[in-house]
Every structure is written in C-alpha cells, then in structure tokens.
Amino acid sequence: MPEPPLTDDIAAAGLDAEVRRDLRGLQKDTADSVARHLVAAGMLLDEDPELALQHARYARRRASRIAVVREAAGIAAYHAGEWSEALGELRAARRMGGGPGHIAVMADIERALGRPERALELARGPEVAELGPAEQIELAIVSAGARRDLGELDAAVVGLQISALDPRRRDPWSARLFYAYADNLLAAGRESDALQWFVHAADADADAETDAAVRIAELTGEPLPEEDVIFGEDEVPDEPAAPADEATNAAADVEEDADAAEAGATGDSAAEEGADADVEDADVTDDSDAGADALEDGAGAENADATADSDAGAETDTLAVGAEAENADAQSDTDAEEDEEDSEGRAAAGADPGAGGAQTSGNAAEAEPADTPAPDSTASRPGGDAPSAKDGSDS
Fold it and tell me: Crossing angle for the helix pair 103-112 and 133-149, nearest 10 degrees?
C-alpha cells in the first residue's frame, strides 16, 4: 500500500514514551517512520477517520508484530466504522500484549455487528476487574445498550444504577453516564424522569460531549437556549494628554482654523450666489414691468386712435348739420319772397281771397319737406353716442 504523506510538523517525539519503547525492536528508520504515522493517525482520528485509518494501516504493515501498533490500527478502524477489521485488530492486540485491552470498544463493536449477546459476554468476563473507573463506566453504558437491543428496557435502566450515578458528582464520565441513563429511561416510557436526568447531564456537560440541551428542548417544546453574545465596541477610557502631545494639539487647532476659514469661504460663495439670484430676479422683474408698460402704451395708442376717429366723425356730423341749417334758411328766404310777390300780385289784380288761401296751403305743403332736417347717419348707427361721451370726458 502507498505511504500516506506526512507533513514536517509530525515528529516521532510526539508519540507517547511507553509506545516508543515498544518500537525499539525495530530498525531506527522503520521505528521513526512507524512512530510518525501513529502520531498522524492519532491527530486525524476525530477530524478525518478515513485518513487516520490509512496511516494506521501503513504502520501496521511495517510493524505487524507489535501489540501497540495493532491496537492503534483497531482503534482507527473503529472510528472509521470498519467493525470487522477493528475487532480483529483489537483481539490480536489482546493476544500479543495480554490484559483486558479495550473490552468496552470490543463489546460495542459486537453490538454494531448485531451480536448483543456477545457484548454481554465480554462485559461478564474476568478481565473486567482489571479495568479502570472510566473503562468500567463505558462498559456499563455499552452493556445497557445491549440490553435495549434485546428489548430488556427495565434491565437496561437498572444496569446503570451504580454508585457513580449521582447528580452531584462531576467526574469526567458523569455527563455521559447521566445522558445514557436518561436515554434508557425515555426508552422505558419514563419521560418525566428522563427529562430530569437530561437536565443533570446538561449541567455536568461542560465540554459539550452530548446533545442533552437538544433532548430537553424536544421534550419540553421550548426553543434551544442561545448563547448570550453581545456585539459592541470596547470603551476606552480617556487618557490625559501628555506634554509631547502639545504639538499634535496645535496642529489640530490649525486644521480646525483652516476648516473654519473654508466654511467662511463657502458662506461667502453662497452669499454671492444669493446676490446673483437677486440680480436675476430684478432683471426678470424689470423685463416684466417693461412688457407691462409696452402693453399699456399699446393700449393707450389704440384708445387714442379710437378717440381721434370718434372726434373726426363728430366734426363731420357737425358740418353736415350746419350745411342743412344754411339750406333751410335759404329755402325760408325764398319762400318769403315768393309769398310777398304773390300778395302784391293779388292786391294788384283783385283776386278772390279763398283761391289765394288755397294757393297758400299748397305752397306751404310744398315747403314742409324743406323744413324737416335729414336724419343723422352717425346718431342712427349702433354705439354712435359712445364717441360723444368720450369726447366729453376727454375735454
């Protein structure tokens, strides 16, 4: 198999000293290579289990007769989900090195392979007495899971009622134990008790190893608590200015004066713009006044022309009336002369007064048309009196 790449920061010194002693039987170069790959497998175990397994397999191929190397390969295969490979490597490590080995891990692998009975057999083996407190708690949790796999729910709950199950304790394994007990209580239908122990698990879970808060939210229907994060700027207390800052303050004053001068200049520019706007408004007003005067002058001229026309018409009418009066006077003189001649003739000839009366009546009838003046054309037209009224107002 190809060798997985190693970075320069991975060194054999990162491996536990006891494990390095087990590698002394190998050649120096081989021991150094195996040690570095074991270090890489341990670093990638949680981040990238598949790559960690590749490093562990390469180390196993280079040193397959060393128990600690087989144990490391079994743990890496367990995290990668390779159950059969993991179980085979851990069994080989127990045969080579003796001791209880990873019994809890092996029992859990048996559960994963669908063999809960074998998991319970491992939990009852003589090697269990050699386990430390943490491994015993892990084996108890795995055994309770095997009971649940078999449908023995009450037995799973009772199997976890051990001395370490104390809500006041804060051991490294307390959170996992409280959580497993609450989970089995919930599976047995004891919801209220399960909720209480999920709360205990959340209180003891300082490293967030479990999802106890999520389970509490599911049981209570309440939203998950949000972290109290306050976003804001840190307040920096004001510090008194040092003597060395006087030059800086003076520069700041000069800059403020420059800003003020610039602002004044801006104000003057604004005033000039306002003055220009006033001049433009005045020009517009003058133009408007001039236009109004022009219109008034035009209207006055039209009125003057109309008045002149009216005056001319009135003078024409006056002359016509005078001419008619003179013609009437001339006609009257002619009629008087004719009457005088007729009277003289009748006196001389001794004519009848009745005939002369008849003749006088006829002459009078003939003279009446001359005494009636001709109608005035100016007075008969519509609005003919308006010019006379205008003339009177003008005079």
Answer: 20
